[in-house]
Every structure is written in structure tokens, then in C-alpha cells.
Amino acid sequence: MFKRGDIVWGKIKTYPWWPAIVLNPKDCGRDKVGRNKFWIFWFGDHKITQVKCNEVLDFQKHFEEKCVPKIGKALKSAICEVLTILAARYNIKNSDPSSLFDWARKGFKKKLCRPSDNSKSLELPDIVKNALKKKAFQRKEDNDDEIVNALDDVSKGKTSLEDICVMCFKLDNSVVMPHPFFVGGVCQDCRPFISEITKTPKGQMNDICILCCQGGNLVYCCNSFCMSAYCETCIDYMTPKETLSEILKDNDWKCYLCMPATDDRCLIKRREVYLAVGPSTRPVKKSSICVMGLNDAVMSVLMKKMISVNSFSYISPRTSNRSYDDFSIKEIKDIDPDFIYDSFFVSSAVERKESQECLFVSFYKFLYRLVMTRPLKPYIFFMYMCDAEIVNEFIKMRVRRFLQVDPTKIKIGKKEVYLWSNLPAIKDIKDNVYLMKKSRGPMFIEEDILNKFLEPLKDFFHARIIK
């Protein structure tokens, strides 16, 4: 049986075996650990997960088996962290990574003495201690009475989920923003953790709850396009009795984002069309607009509309076409966009399959920027348009799921364009089909559409002053 401080290999679902260290529950702010489970700290991304005993192996005994010749950079970096810790325990100093890997492959034995102090193996390395301090893990169980009282008031209609923080349920914490995915508020203390759930693309596993941004015993959505994680604590508190046991028995469970609960007693409620619902009121004091756009067509139209532009950032092609994160998180924060725009048009000479592959890359870049911007502001305007001829029902379904708006078909002569946007002028179009009677030709289709639908931005942003 492993004990605190033991270096191990751990396994979660489809992920490869990964180096970790065993923790006590108290190390990560927990009072207990599940039956036949361990709390472990993952090297590399420095996250915490509870793992079953049969999914944990001794690191040194299984090193040769798990550390195969061709491993990814992230896994290699995590293993390097472990080898540095083991070297320190055996009083090896000034060893470079390559020599440590050689030492490990030779069985960790190369005429080494035992650790000078046997208690060292039970201590947590500084890299682990520092990461635990930064995360300051605190579970919602610590506020059991507050949670019960808050949710009881919601159930009785005395208060609204929007008026309490659904991440911590501390009644003395004022709500500063809505939760991006679910009905409920987020307080100032919890706001910094929102980026942890929004930065993980859909379809990739996360090791924290998408509702409260904390770890613990997690259940995952079985939809391969989603795979969102929910902690058992949130499900226990916010759903009817026996819900958790039913979920654990269901081998094809679809989460609250994919299939909203129909039981009114369930308080985990998807925020319907969060991005599609506009500001409830127009701002009393208008400011200049900040834009993140694909090309200068947006800038040209905004100038014609006499809308004051504070900053305009092109989508840089500086990285591979396959990279979604073409803007860093810091760059997005610096730009602080109010309006995000992207489009995808293809030549008729390009094959349909190739066009669809490129469309997905283009859309996920757009989605990445939108998701990373969402925690920064209560509301962001967006627009994405593309050729209708390459869009099938599957693509429409995927885009609809992520953007939470139905596509509007724009007809310009023989040309058809699909448009997804939360701009007021587009949401009011009857039957989601709009016939544009005037166009300057194929070369100006994009700009003509923008010119038609960007007019409402005047109601929300400062007018440009001509001196």
C-alpha cells in the first residue's frame, strides 16, 4: 500500500500513465479519501485527483515499462520533475536531465547510498508544497450549513440562484458575474478560477468540476464531444436524492450541458443561450469598441458607421493553421475585446472535404478566442460567417451547440452564407433567412453583410468624432 510522499504512476481514462505523488487528504484540504482510492498530485500540470488503487503503480518498478522511447514533451517534462525529486532524495546533485534519465533506465541503482534521512521519503517536495499553497484547496463541504440554507431558500423561491455564488455558496460573498455555463452567480473570490474551466476545449477531459472549479470525486459526461467533469459534491447538493447513484450506474450519461435536467428540483441548470442573450439595457455611459477581427473589412465598416474604435487586432497567421490558440491568454486580456469576428470562405476549386477540415480549424480558433474572453466581460458580441455550400447538418449542430444560436441563412443572388451571431439585428430575422437585395458583387459579399448588420453597435458604443 502506498503512503504519503510515494512517487507513483497514475492512470485516468484515456490519458497515458502519468507520474504523480501520493497525498494525504489534509494536504489538499480534504477530510477523507474514498474507499480503495488515493489522493494524488500530478506532475507537469500540478493538479489534484482522487484515483482508484488499481490505477496506481510504483514509479521506479514500472519506469522502464511506462517511460517508452517516444513520449510527448509534456510527459517528458513531468517525468523530469520526478527524477529531480528522486535524485535529491538520494543526495545526487547537479545532474542534468539526460543523465537522470540514464540513471533511471539503469534501475536507479548506480552505486547510490540510501537516503540520508528515511523521513525524506515521507516529506512532500517543495515544488508540490508551493503548488498546494497556490491552489489553496477548500471544499464546499466546509460550509455545509450555508449550502443547505442557501439552496433551501432557492427551492422555496425566497432567493434566486443568480443571487448566490454557485461555486462556494458563501452567503456573505457578493455576486460579481454570472456563471458562464450554469444559472447562478460567481463571487469575486471564485472569479479567478473561471478561466480553469473555460480554457479547456470541449471534447477534452478536465480534472476539475465545470460548475465549482474544484477537484474531488468526478463523474464525466459520456458525450465524446463534451466530456465535462462534475464533482460528486455539486451533484449531491444540487440535485434530487439518488441522482448521483443513478449517474454512476449509467454507462452513457449525458451531462447537464448536453441534456438539461427536466426535473424542476434539479438546481444544476444550463445557462440557456448565454452568449445569445444581449445586455438587458443599453449602457448609460458608452465607450469605444475593442475589436478582434479576421481582416480589415470589419474596421472599414465600423469607420463608415462612425463607431469609435479603441483597439483593433487582426487574427495573426503567425502560427500553424492547426493551432487554435493563435492568441495567448495575456494578449486576449490586453485586447479585452467587445466584438469578436471571423469568417471562412473558400474557392470553388477546393475539394469539399478539405474545405470542411479547414472550416473546423477556423471555427475552433474563433471559439477559443470567444471562450477565453467570456470571463473578462459580462457580455461579448460575436459574429461568424461561412459559405453555406460546405455546411452540412452535422456542422450546423456542432456550431449551434457551442455558440447557442441558430444559423441565419443570408441569400445574395445565387450565393448563400451562414451567419452565427448574437447581434440584435440578426436575432430579429424571421425564420432565420434573410434575402439581401443589394450587393456589390462576390468580392464584397463579406463587407456588404457586415455593413447590413453592424448598425446596432451604435447603441452600445461611442460614436467616432471627426475633428
Write a short abstract of this structure.
This protein is α/β, with parallel strands linked by helices and 467 residues long. 28% of the residues lie in helices and 16% in strands.
Percentage of residues in DSSP E strands? 15-25%
> Which structural class do the helices and strands define?
alpha/beta
Low-confidence stretches: 115-119, 273-277, 317-322
**Quaternary structure state of the chains depicted:** single chain
Number of H- or I-type helical stretches? 14
Number of strands: 16
Q: Tell me the span between the first and last alpha carbons.
A: 77 Å
- The topology string of helices and strands comes to EEEEEHHHHHEEHEEHHEHEHEHEHEEHEH
Question: Shape, please?
Answer: globular
Biggest sheet overview: 7 strands, mixed
Average pLDDT? 78
Residues in helix, %? 25-40%
Give, in spatial order, the strands making up the sheet with the most strands. 11-10-12-13-15-14-16
What is the alpha-carbon Rg in Å? Answer: 26 Å
